[in-house]
Design brief:
Elements (H helix, E strand, L loop, with lengths): L38 H40 L8 E7 L9 H10 L3 E6 L7 H13 L6 H9 L6 H9 L6 E6 L7 H17 L6 E7 L18 H8 L2 H4 L2 E7 L3 H14 L6 E2 L1 H13 L4 H18 L12 H7 L3 H10 L11 H8 L1 H9 L1 H26 L11 H8 L14 H4 L8 H13 L3 H19 L4 H23 L6 H17 L5 H7 E2 L2 H8 L3 H10 L1 H13 L14 H5 L3 H10 L8 H9 L5 E3 H21 L10 H17 L3 E3 L6 E4 L13
Parallel strand pairs: 1-4, 1-5, 2-3, 3-4, 6-7
Antiparallel strand pairs: 8-10, 9-10
Helix pairs in contact: 1-2, 1-9, 1-11, 4-5, 9-10, 9-17, 10-11, 10-24, 11-24, 13-23, 14-15, 16-17, 16-20, 16-21, 16-22, 16-23, 19-22, 20-21, 20-22, 21-22, 25-26, 26-28, 29-30, 29-31
């Protein structure tokens, strides 16, 4: 346990939400008292979250596995091939790829379906040669049925004896299969131990020749710059560069190296990230604010599938935990059920969203008037809205699929800095309007992410121009590719939504047929295709019904960003500006930590009795906050806020001394214990230490003009703990 003084700033409870699809994971949903009468709506929201996130997780997993399947298939094809006496080595170069944490598991799953024994070694096994050989032997013996004879052999031999493998297989009456050794993240292995191990294994393999046959499988994940493969110099990721540094010469000369390059970060992003947002297949659609957050974290923080999935899961969770209409994602209840478990405010919330974009300058139609007063009619209209929402979202998926195929034919995929790209077009298609989003287009330049993102009109013009300039052969290729993509989308949708996609597909074929019947102009097919692409793009950027956006969409990135990204500067400034409030907030957070919510301040518990808990320390600290004196660094910061650009140290010191004298007078009038009277030397020391702390935080710096001045470095300061803001 931590001591009484350590970790005070770390006592605030932090909830870590993983991206794994664990069926046993139960997130705590609270009743929204303003809209819900009992626990039934809360349970419906919880069930809807589990169902939608399960679909989203399955979609993300399917996309990433589809991306890596060609590479894994290439590895499996090379397994049975042994054309030379050298040790076959397959290198999976993931240096330019995003991180997929489950890739070793996926790879071993495919290898296990073959007649192989796969041994996965990690740096943990590579402590020394004996430990590494022992791990190698034990994993091979794990595939032999455990019998008394085999157990006796394991006890008779040393765990690091390679001859035990052949002896055990002969005793079991089995032939030693092909052995695949997987070294994941080879750059993390100690080079000397790994080379000794490979030398020992190759010597053992030569002795037991022609069986067993060994295949070495290596993954190299040292990161490269964020540029796509096509933009990076070939010498930068040439395998010989790092192979020479990892493998000794006496080992490298017996290796038959083959390199398979995994998809780079840009391909990973377009095939997984963009594809998911275009077509989540989960019943919940995410908007541009979440898309930009995921993109920023992917390209600027961690290019990781797990980080992407975690961000998306938090968006799903926030939608179902905070929005009362999210209970209707999986189905619309009848009037009796709604009245029994929801308050009347839920009808007001439904109507507010339903009529949000309804302009009524000249009167109200009879149908609108009926929906405004009849609850049954409102719910009846709501029941058909889910399919309408799905059809509206399918048009977006259709347009982005066609756009992606156009970019593939033109060779523009993964190209950044251009006005036309899949990422920018996906962002445009996901853009909605307040109050259904907190996305602000004015933040584009500030975020430095979408500075080249075009408008919807620009995309329309660019697509029309590109398609109209294509030759007939390219157009035919493009139409075939779009047809395949539309067919793939249609096969995964229900009947109503699939019919809309099928109608779009039929319109494409009719356009192609009409172009063939026209005069044989060079660009006749291109112009026809341009007209079709422009039409489906305009349809995709049309806003769906407002109530559909309230129920089946989520587009508020700020709460998710707050959970995932720390605000170090604001935290420091607020703590300096209001130290008592900060400690009180930390104390309250600690007292409401898991397991402490239902306990009183004097409730007995083990850590309290042993005085080993940070919660105990903060509770005790909270009792003295009212009478505590302000820390010197906070006192100096309060004077800092009223200063100009350049601060004279002598004036600052005099103000600091006057502040200390005022504190002594206050404590004297309040009848509190007086602090020890400071000497001039001790006061100067306190001032110097506080000044050094501010300089260490980056709040003050050298002035550069006079030695007795310091420069003020920050200006956006809170006023009295943000009370007046």
């Amino acid at each position: 346990m931590a001591s009484e003084t350590s970790g005070l700033l770390e006592a605030e409870p932090i909830s870590i939400i993983t991206a794994e699809n664990n069926s046993n994971d139960e997130c705590e949903f609270y009743t929204i008292s303003h809209f819900e009468k009992d626990s039934v709506p809360r349970l419906k929201r919880s069930e809807a979250f589990n169902a939608t996130w399960q679909g989203a997780y399955g979609r993300l997993t399917s996309l990433v596995r589809t991306l890596y399947e060609p590479c894994i298939a290439n590895v499996c094809e090379r397994m049975p091939v042994k054309t030379s006496p050298l040790l076959p080595v397959t290198i999976l170069d993931a240096s330019g790829s995003a991180t997929y944490e489950a890739f070793p598991t996926l790879l071993m799953h495919h290898l296990s379906s073959m007649d192989h024994v796969t041994v996965q070694l990690s740096p943990f096994h590579c402590i020394n040669l004996s430990t590494m050989i022992s791990a190698f032997v034990s994993q091979i013996l794990h595939h032999i049925p455990c019998t008394p004879e085999i157990s006796g052999l394991c006890q008779a031999y040393e765990p690091n004896d390679l001859t035990l493998v052949m002896t055990a297989y002969r005793a079991a009456g089995l032939h030693l299969p092909r052995i695949v050794i997987l070294l994941h993240e080879i750059q993390t292995f100690p080079s000397s131990v790994m080379n000794d191990f490979l030398s020992a294994v190759m010597s053992w393999s030569d002795i037991t020749s022609p069986t067993p046959s060994i295949h070495l499988l290596i993954t190299y994940t040292a990161p490269l710059p964020l540029l796509p493969r096509s933009k990076v110099s070939h010498d930068l990721y040439e395998t010989t560069t790092w192979v020479t540094s990892l493998f000794a010469e006496q080992v490298r000369m017996y290796l038959d190296l083959t390199t398979i390059v995994l998809p780079d970060k840009s391909e990973f992003w377009e095939s997984v990230g963009c594809a998911f947002f275009a077509e989540p297949r989960s019943g919940l659609w995410l908007g541009r604010s979440i898309f930009e957050l995921v993109r920023r974290r992917y390209w600027h923080t961690t290019a990781s599938w797990d980080a992407m999935a975690q961000c998306i899961r938090l968006a799903y969770l926030e939608h179902f935990r905070t929005r009362p209409l999210s209970a209707f994602v999986q189905g619309i209840p009848d009037v009796e059920t709604l009245s029994a478990h929801w308050t009347s405010e839920i009808y007001a919330e439904l109507r507010l969203s339903f009529f949000l974009r309804a302009a009524i300058p000249s009167g109200v139609s009879p149908h609108m008037r009926e929906l405004a007063y009849d609850n049954s009619a409102l719910l009846h209209a709501l029941s058909g809205l889910q399919s309408d929402m799905a059809v509206s979202m399918s048009s977006r998926a259709t347009a982005l699929a066609a756009l992606h195929e156009v970019l593939c034919v033109l060779g523009l995929t993964g190209a950044y800095g251009t006005k036309l790209g899949l990422t920018g077009c996906t962002a445009i298609a996901l853009e909605w309007i307040p109050p259904f989003t907190d996305w602000d287009a004015s933040r584009t330049t500030a975020n430095a992410l979408t500075a080249t993102t075009p408008t919807a009109q620009q995309v329309d013009a660019l697509l029309s121009h590109l398609c109209s300039t294509l030759e007939n052969k390219q157009v035919s290729e493009l139409v075939d590719g779009i047809s395949r993509r539309l067919h793939a989308i249609e096969s995964n949708l229900d009947a109503a939504v699939a019919a809309a996609v099928r109608s779009t597909h039929e319109s494409l074929l009719s356009v192609q047929h009409a172009a063939h019947t026209k005069a044989r102009a060079q660009n006749s097919m291109g112009e026809a295709l341009a007209s079709w692409v422009s039409g489906i793009w305009r349809k995709s950027v049309e806003l769906p019904p407002s109530l559909g956006l309230s129920i089946w969409t989520y587009d508020f990135g700020e709460p998710i960003s707050t959970m995932l990204e720390g605000a170090a500067r604001s935290t420091i400034i607020l703590a300096l500006d209001a130290p008592s409030d900060t400690l009180a907030s930390m104390s309250a957070a600690a007292c409401t930590a898991p397991g402490q919510r239902e306990l009183s301040d004097q409730a007995p518990w083990y850590e309290w009795e042993e005085h080993m808990s940070e919660v105990h320390t903060l509770r005790e600290t909270g009792k003295d906050l009212v009478n505590a004196s302000v820390p010197d660094v906070c006192r100096l910061f309060s004077l800092y806020k009223d200063s100009s650009r350049f601060i004279n140290l002598a004036d600052w010191y005099e103000a600091f001394v006057q502040s200390l004298q005022g504190e002594e007078i206050r404590r004297k009038h309040a009848g509190l214990d007086m602090e020890n009277e400071d000497t001039v030397a001790s006061t100067q020391m306190r001032f110097s230490l506080a000044l050094n702390e501010l300089a260490y935080m980056g709040i003050v710096g050298p002035a550069g003009r006079k030695i007795e001045h310091v420069s003020r470095l920050i200006w956006d300061l809170p006023v009295n703990g943000m009370h007046e803001a």
